[in-house]
Amino acid sequence: MKRALTLRRFAPLPSPVRGRGAGVRGLVLLLPIMLGACAATQQADAVAPQAPGFLLGLWHGFIFPVAWVVSLFLPKVAVYAVPNNGGWYDFGYFLGIVVFGVGARKSHVVYRDNVINARARRVE
Question: Which residues, including other chains, have CB under 8 Å from residue 83's CB and lie 6 or more apart?
């Protein structure tokens, strides 16, 4: 017996502009603006010419694990140089941690082969 294909008509979906959808959409649009307002900024003339830059950021990122452990016991040791020259120091710090430092460690991959030698029985 073949059944005929029939199309059913469903009630139209409610418009997202009315009701709860507008509030959710407004929150989604407002949330990045609110989070962006929390971002720290720095005046360009507030940075001294001898402030740590990209290379020191790279070095500080590389030695981060050791500096962090030492900073737990010595209050004058910090893991991040303040003041610094801003974005370039941050980029060097990120590369130092992720590429050359802690994040550069390769995880140990174990491949496991499961071989099951069993005869199958016919089920009737």
Answer: 42, 46, 47, 48, 51
> Which residues form the domain of 82?
41-104
Q: What is the model's pLDDT at position 18? A: 54
Is residue 117 included in any domain, yes or no?
Answer: no
In this structure, is residue 70 part of a structural domain?
A: yes
> Is the pTM of the predicted complex or chain greater than 0.85?
no
**55-97 tens-digit pLDDT:** 999 998 988 888 999 999 998 888 888 888 888 889 999 998 8
Residue 83 preceded by cis peptide, ω within 30: yes
- Count of domains observed in the chain: 1
DSSP 44: G
Buried b (16+ CB within 10 A) or exposed e, 41-67: eeeeeebeeeebbbebbbbbbbbbeee
